[in-house]
Design a protein that fits this description.
three-stranded antiparallel β-sheet; single chain; alpha+beta; oxidoreductase; six-stranded antiparallel β-sheet; globular; EC 1.8.4.12; Metal Binding Protein, Guanine Nucleotide Exchange Factor, Chain A
């Protein structure tokens, strides 16, 4: 992870190793990539539910954001507002846009624009399945919204 970035969930590498398996650590904390077509969420198309960060469980994508791109990784046309942070990635001699969890900085994958998919944003968030967990209901989103409302109310009382 970039040392110049800070996130609300700032665990040490040893703390992450205690809660992630080896593959999750490699991808989320060391910016790895799973082989195309190997992830459990590549061909997973529920009509409701929320995909959360496998590291910190922050809600990232609604099931309704997911689409079939044929790229070999789960693809989403948008994220939950504020859930994903974008960084310039110049690794491997290319310019790409890396996406990370806004709560813990865990590597999710990359976002690509202008590929012509028939989606509302013309974007493809290409995400490693290992970076994700899935909740069949919208409870993670509701919980986050309740926490944010409480924070705003507490700040307005000061």
């Amino acid at each position: 992870m970039s040392s110049s970035s800070s996130y609300p969930d700032e665990r040490t590498p040893d703390q992450w190793r205690a809660v992630l398996n080896k593959e999750q650590f490699r991808i989320l904390r060391e910016k790895g990539t799973e082989p195309p077509g190997s992830g459990k969420f590549d061909k997973h198309y529920p009509t409701t539910g929320v995909y959360t960060c496998a590291g910190c469980h922050a809600p990232l994508y609604k099931a309704s954001h997911k689409f079939s791109s044929g790229c070999g990784w789960p693809a989403y046309f948008d994220s939950i507002p504020g859930a994903v942070t974008r960084h310039e990635d110049r690794a491997f001699g290319m310019l790409r846009t890396e996406i990370v969890c806004s709560n813990c900085g865990g590597h999710l994958g990359h976002v690509f624009k202008g590929e012509g998919f028939p989606t509302p944003t013309d974007e493809r968030h290409c995400v490693n399945s290992v970076s994700l967990s899935f909740s069949p209901d919208d409870e993670p989103v509701k919980k986050k919204e309740q926490e944010e409302t409480k924070e705003r109310e507490d700040k307005s009382k000061v």
